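At this stage, I wrote out one protein, both as residues and as discrete backbone shape codes, and that material follows here.
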Amino acid sequence: MVQVWTIPQQLPADASLPALLAELDDAGRARHARLVTATLRERYLATHVAARRILGALLGCAPAALPIRHGVHGKPALPAPWSFNLSHSGGYALLAVAHGGELGVDIEQMRADIDAAAISARYFHPAERAALAALAADARREAFFRCWTRKEAYLKAVGVGLAGGLAQCRVSLDHEHAALLEVAWDPAEADRWWMASWQPRPGYAAALCVAQPRAAVVFHEWQP
């Protein structure tokens, strides 16, 4: 089973800053301190405190004591068989957790100021660009963000992030069928993964990529 939480990036009204910071580890507190605006600091703290509380409850440990390590490309991980992934955009974050099997999750605010045509021309697979071009103009923006979140969810699942090459993997763009279709470096890779795609909030796109076999997905709403 995969559990996915939608987390508003806002602190509780009665939150104590020292108490919340105590729920992070040293690296988290240092990163929080480096953020340059109050909004970024608040969103970071709200997201990471919520994620640590959720993960701590599942693993039976205090939020600050979670045994999180980082892979070669920086992907955070828990001791096997647990796996998790975190993504944030705009005012929301997503946390995906599974007991067994790797996964990746991505959320993107569908901002109007994003130059979707320029980004897809540079980073998308030729077949994805052709599929976008074939759509009516008013359908392209949502399709662009469906494509982007699906690709990024896969790259995060395998632990390479965007450095893995957005153009090296191909995904479906249609609304009802999310799928990894092709990976340039391994013809068998696409069959190893299952995808889901949805809108967690109006104006947001999200995708989940999970190692096969497919598991049930349970969605939760986090209350600050």
Notes: The helical segments are 17-21, 26-34, 38-59, 116-123, 126-133, 137-157. The first strand starts at residue 2 and ends at 8. The chain has one domain: 2-221. Residues 38-59 form the longest helix (22 residues).
